[in-house]
Amino acid sequence: MNGECKLDYREADITHAERMKEEANVHFSAKRYADAIDFYSKAIAMCESSSTKPHNFAAYYANRSFAHSKTEAYGYALADATKAIQLDPKYLKGYYRRATAYMSLGKFKEALKDYEVVVKALPNDKDANRKYTECNKLVKRLAFEKAISVEDTKSVSEQIDIESMKIENDYSGPCLNDGKVTLEFMKELIKTYREQGKLHKKYAYKILLDVKKYLEKQPTLVHINIKSDEKFTVCGDIHGQFYDLLNIFELNGLPSDTNPYLFNGDFVDRGSFSVECIFTLFGFKLLFPDKFFMSRGNHESVTMNRMYGFEGEVKSKYSVEMANLFTEVYNWLPLAHCINRRVLVMHGGLFSKDNVTLKDIENIYRNRQPPEEGLMCDMLWSDPQDAPGRSPSKRGVGVQFGPDVTKTFVELNNLDYIIRSHEVKAKGYEEAHDSKCITVFSAPNYCDTMGNKGAFITLEGHCLKPKFTTYTAVPHPPVKPLMYANSLVNLFC
């Protein structure tokens, strides 16, 4: 009798877990990914606590893996997919999900191995073969590029001959004034871009070369001094959402000597107006070099640009040569800014070790692609967490840091608080760690799917107390996000 009761109880648990999984699937279909993850997690916990597991238990982890991928928590997605495979080595969807996570992390060879497992098991599956073929092409292409690369060749910037570039008679876009960016040029550029026009390649190259020359002279950590009566604006990720960028300027005013800005990384990728965003931002950088600032984000890198659209967009609108020049420019972007020596701003977050000082940040060598560990990696990739201490990153790169880590860091460096970006927030911002760690994200309705608000922060020099302005997405021309992304991205998204 007792045995029968226990069996009924276990069966009830599994039935309840199945219902929760189905509810999670509903949330996933409605693109409520955080809710989906919550219900998948509850269902998994219920099954894990029971001695009896559902026959499809691997699917619970594989489904949660896919939901994590949708929230860009690729580290968690990878762990869940691996768990699904461990539970059932024949469960092919686990390999699909793990390949997705590997692709998102730029680990293309690992992804190819998982796609190969699926293709061998399902040789006639068109979807599996398409993904395997595309991934294989990418791996071979990268191997070829590596084989033909020669380290002592001239940089792209040294090979460009701007003088030989002719301006066609029918070009009607903005023109530099004696090779210089002016306010009139910027207004005309914005108008041209708003109407889906294009900047001539001669002026585009000139802007890139001038920005590179300026950035090369900048330190890795830039100190900004704002006056007691001065307003200063900090914006987070823009991600190629040009029309939302214009909305920020409409709400808060164009950049000027009396209206300074800091854009905190991830200017490009995902959104399909990344070229328009980056030339607008670089133009203002040249026009107001001491009042307009830009930090590097994790998406100002070759791997991310190759996967999430910026490289493809530049190639489509200009050339391979320009895409390579962007890489050289991005390598020189500062990694952090410190406002009045009281507020540190960087794209990702804090570090995987204690006792890091501002001096340590100043000494980081930045003219390179982001490494997979160390201070530079952490600054571009890390995220805050509620729990004390540190944890492995949900993204698979960087680290997650708790309120105690933030408190120790700001006290050590005599800071009031830190500002970072890097994460979608429903309100466009979040105050965490006793308001010592502030997140600002400026791309509303991220990728046209997330439904989040965007936000920017304004500070006044006399107190540096953050004021948050939020806004919703504005209409844009009918060009989908990820339009120029690697074909594999659209296959697994």
Secondary-structure blueprint:
Elements lengths: L1 H28 L3 H16 L8 H14 L3 H14 L4 H13 L3 H14 L4 H23 L7 H4 L23 H12 L6 H15 L5 E4 L6 E5 L6 H11 L8 E3 L10 H14 L4 E3 L7 H7 L1 H8 L2 H11 L5 E4 L3 E4 L11 H5 L12 H7 L1 E2 L5 E3 L6 E3 L1 H10 L4 E4 L8 E4 L4 E4 L13 E7 L6 E5 L15 H6 L1
Parallel strand pairs: 1-5, 2-3, 3-4, 6-10, 7-9, 10-12
Antiparallel strand pairs: 2-13, 5-6, 8-9, 11-12, 13-14
Helix pairs in contact: 1-2, 2-3, 3-4, 3-5, 4-5, 5-6, 6-7, 9-12, 10-12, 10-15, 14-15
Could you walk me through the main structural features you see in this protein, from its secondary elements to its overall organization?
This protein has 493 residues and is an alpha/beta fold. Helix content is 47%, strand content 11%. It is built from 19 helices and 14 strands. It has helices at 2-29, 33-48, 57-70, 74-87, 92-104, 108-121, 126-148, 156-159, 183-194, 201-215, 242-252, 274-287, 302-308, 310-317, 320-330, 358-362, 375-381, 403-412, 487-492, and strands spanning 221-224, 231-235, 261-263, 292-294, 336-339, 343-346, 383-384, 390-392, 399-401, 417-420, 429-432, 437-440, 454-460, 467-471. A 6-stranded mixed β-sheet has the order 1-5-6-10-12-11. Strands 4-3-2-13-14 form a 5-stranded mixed β-sheet, with helices on one face. It has a 3-stranded mixed β-sheet with strand order 7-9-8. Helix 1 packs antiparallel against helix 2 (33-48), helix 2 (33-48) packs antiparallel against helix 3 and helix 9 runs antiparallel to helix 12 (274-287). The longest helix has 28 residues, at 2-29. The radius of gyration is 24 Å and the shape is globular. The chain starts with a helix and ends with a helix. 45% of the residues are buried. Mean pLDDT is 94; it is low at 1-7.
